[in-house]
Structure of L-fuconate dehydratase:
Amino acid sequence: MVRGRICSLSVRDVRFPTSLGGHGSDAMHTDPDYSAAYVVLETDAEDGLKGYGITFTLGKGTEVVVCAVNALAHHVLNKDLGDIVGDFRGFYRQLTSDGQLRWIGPEKGVVHLATAAILNAVWDLWAKQEGKDPRTLLSCIDFRYITDVLTEEEAYEILQKGQVGKKEREGQMLMHGYPAYTTSCAWLGYSDDTLKQLCTEALKAGWTRPAVGSSLLSLSCVNMDPWTSEGLPLDKWFKVKVGADLQDDVRRCRLIRNMIGPEKTLMMDANQRWDVPEAVKWMSQLAEFKPLWIEEPTSPDDILGHAAISKALAPLGIGVATGEQCHNRVIFKQLLQAKALQFLQIDSCRLGSVNENLSVLLMAKKFEIPVCPHAGGVGLCELVQHLIIFDFISVSASLQNRMCEYVDHLHEHFRYPVIIKKASYMPPKDAGYSTEMKEESVKKHQYPDGEVWKKLLAAQEN
Amino acid sequence: MVRGRICSLSVRDVRFPTSLGGHGSDAMHTDPDYSAAYVVLETDAEDGLKGYGITFTLGKGTEVVVCAVNALAHHVLNKDLGDIVGDFRGFYRQLTSDGQLRWIGPEKGVVHLATAAILNAVWDLWAKQEGKDPRTLLSCIDFRYITDVLTEEEAYEILQKGQVGKKEREGQMLMHGYPAYTTSCAWLGYSDDTLKQLCTEALKAGWTRPAVGSSLLSLSCVNMDPWTSEGLPLDKWFKVKVGADLQDDVRRCRLIRNMIGPEKTLMMDANQRWDVPEAVKWMSQLAEFKPLWIEEPTSPDDILGHAAISKALAPLGIGVATGEQCHNRVIFKQLLQAKALQFLQIDSCRLGSVNENLSVLLMAKKFEIPVCPHAGGVGLCELVQHLIIFDFISVSASLQNRMCEYVDHLHEHFRYPVIIKKASYMPPKDAGYSTEMKEESVKKHQYPDGEVWKKLLAAQEN
């Protein structure tokens, strides 16, 4: 039973000054401050539950997303949560098809990020109240513009098939978790020495950290029995940022490949630096380092370009991965139709929340393309773990060629941070979408008035 | 000689309550208030010239674009205009590739609209100071992500070929203008009676209005000799909005076709209402009314979808037109590559100003696809006339299958409004990009404090 009327929406601009240490830097984003537009929904229900939602940003521009959240707020305020989730498809479309606001999207850029932040909060709140069955999940998806590839009935069949062996896969997740790989050790802003040191550490440590309680977003009604910590065999994946300078790339790739040996998986990430012919040429020269994929070789909007690159690199054994800046389900639909990618990277905060991510997971299943989510930025790991574990348990039923990105920073600001064990995401155990930040962290990092920014901005002025 | 350092940027939220009369309504945008984020640049030069720039919006959300303009302002302020236009490609890329802000685009949605508003103001200012030759124009284009289809050298060749017969085409424009068609008479929100009345008026009147002085944006260095008003043979085009209800569409299309007769050109516009199979089915049932094109049959992001629709409708003699919500040159590149459209509709305020529009005009020329701009909203006609007349004089050199949209409202708020004579855009004569609004209009329509909105908002509260 869903309870409460949304009586308050607040949104804050929260920024972490990560650019100071070069964290997260790549060929196109040289000085990101990992940030979020942070939404809190309150209801008038007596349970006192709140819904927390974020969308990820890189610092400047967060205030624009905050402004867009406020522009969308009237669609949410004073609505019954029951009415919202009772026709979640309709509500999704109301947000994305507002007769005036859709002009400044539609379903892309700032307004879509704002939509994600709000809907993520709705899912957090809803997930704390109750579980969902396949029909309920489907009723959340807006199939507009994708029925030529996936109808609601086809989606239902996929979810029905996903019931087979579900119990075993739940057990497997609870026991071993979902395989992760790390990007932390090869940001473009790091020196060779830092790179070497971080790579050594990652190889040695396996990111084991003390487990704390957590739980699957009630998406997939996982069995909540405790799990043992016997892990999967350790098979680590490493990712290196490329694309700024070919000679640098050759040197760095050689360094990493030498350290990790020939068997471990290496991926490369160009962050959209190249034109289509350039991507093919550049990657041909990095082929000797045996990358599994090249990520974001060109513009995220270029479906036909990715298809051409995929075709050219296939003989070299290099796949194409993209998605973190693909702005909606229509782009993913076409990437699948055009055979433009071999690895699909959803971003939990760019697409329109769980609603739209579900549609992409289902289309990927239909085309049998593995989903390997993007999860670098603040909060992305917390959210995406729900999606990817759901994907394994209820949709793809496979771990082959699948892994979820993981970056080991800023988790300390979340109330229910991800748990990584032996290079795997362990299923979250607390109800909700793991989106709540610690109030203390929010207060400190609020822009421009939080303590951290007050100091930094004052220092900049001097 | 380019003069001045940008010493001030102001941006205002200007809205016209057009929804009160159902103007501009269509299947997806049922209550638009035609609006603009309105940018004014000032320099420290003694000439006192200002640059005016707008981007078009539909009411709500204009404040989000205003916020984005402010977020981009630091890239413009305190820059020498000479430095900006001296490396305009670099400046364009600086705006569109800001390491933090590009995350909330990139090159799409709110930030790209804001980019357009700012750059439109730069062009207005620059155009008032001096003319441009082909090499200068090319130096404004960011070829990133389109070199697989158009290189700078190819673009140069196209412009060089465009020199042949240029003088004659200038004369032709000055004499007859650029053919226009009107959408005003068939907005979805109008009743059958209103529709009939407006259609009759348009047929009778030919929109003749007293000519006032105007001039080509110095893009193409047009001969400024006075022209006679001997017109082209009158061949009017009419456009009807479809997509909400098939029976309504059949009735309205029959009504209009009967009024205009079998020879006049009729276009249809679905404003993205359909999925791909639905578009094909629906249009098959409207084929008897002989539309030249179906505009925006589905999502503006769906390149492969438009290609499928184009293929299916070709045997019925119906072309596909799209572009007003296509968010950048990468999308247009693919629409051309995939043979997904037969008519290309740029929007002067959605793409990144003249810089990006130029790249699209040049690609369209390469594929020999006619450009028929979108120009409904406030200010769009004022801006796009420069682009389309430039296209004819210097790029396409053809009027075949070409026409520019025209909607007859809100021009009275501009200081240099478009001049329509015998259903044609007459070349603008004043220097600049025709972007300046009357200060009185801006003040009255500023949201939420202008006189017009104060009254309306107070009335809503009661």
